[in-house]
Amino acid sequence: MKNNTWAFIDSGACSPSYNMALDEALLNWHSEGSIPPIIRFYTWEPATLSIGYFQRAEKEINLKEVSKRGLGFVRRPTGGRAVLHEHELTYSVIVTEEYPDMPKNVTEAYRVISEGILKGFQNLGMEAYFAVPQTEIELQALKAPQSAVCFDASSWYELVVEGRKVAGSAQTRQKGVILQHGSILMELEEEKLFSLFNFTNEQDKARMMEKFNNKAVAMNDIADRKISLIEAKAAFKAGFAEGLGVKLVSYQLTEEQDKEVKRLAKEKYQSDDWNFMR
Question: Which residues does UniProt mark as catalytic (predicted)?
């Protein structure tokens, strides 16, 4: 029988290592059956550049600029491209692969989970919709992204408003559990973002920035009013509840759970062995 009650955590602003450690810990606890499926909202302190599991940090990222700007840096356990987490709401969804009506296909599961984000944008009065790659060029871009920047890369069922991408997500499956987390852009500083990547030359950088500007947008650049983080959280929390057909109940970490997350953050997500493994 389908259990329609899920847990919900709003972690607030956390360090990059703690954010990734908590997502991994929630996956582990859910795989053990000690917590129900869970949705988590969080932000980052300091603002952070996260890279995908398969990215090559020293080749693709301007690490000196990341340090110069006082940004955090962390490798995610999920795939995808690099994301600057600053003016955004970040979410994660942790649910077993065996959850009723959850598709086995990764792409279709992404669509089902992302239904909550779609509803969130609609709750804010924005005409969001899912788009899929249509041309051969777009399909090839899925296999070989031209840029290290997340919002520049095509994906299946990406969320679009006024023809431009407004949310980027990544997924992993471990221990029979799906972890999907992603970035919902509220504001965007393109110059700052593109200063964090290595380019062959300035012309290449300018070309990528132009392409990015045509493909990605932040919600407050197109909304008819200024949307606050508080308003966004309420809209997307209600969106996930509606989109997934679940009831969300607040969840509080125990002292032991918090200690476990901090241990994982220190031992794994703060380590150079993890962050510069490629």
Answer: 150
Q: pLDDT by residue (tens digit) across 72-124?
A: 999 999 998 899 999 999 999 999 999 999 999 888 999 999 999 999 999 99
Report the CATH number at residue 246: 3.30.930.10
The CB density around residue 139, as the number of other CB atoms within 10 Å, is 13
Phi, psi of 191 (to 5 degrees): -60, -45
- 129: domain range? 5-275
Question: What's the gap between Cα 262 and its chain centre?
Answer: 21
β-pairing, 128-131 with 38-44?
unpaired
C-alpha dihedral (233, 234, 239, 245), degrees to nearest 10: 120
pLDDT > 60? residue 212? yes
Positions marked catalytic: 150
DSSP three-state, residue 19: helix
Q: How many domains does the chain have?
A: 1
Q: What is the pLDDT of residues 29-69, one digit of tens each?
A: 999 999 999 999 999 999 999 999 999 999 999 999 999 99
- What are the CA-CA distances from residue 18 to residues 145, 152, 245 (Å)? 29, 27, 29
39 by DSSP, 3-state: which? strand
Query: CB within 8 A of 201, min separation 6: which ones?
Result: none
Give 202's contacts (C-beta < 8 A, 6+ positions apart): none
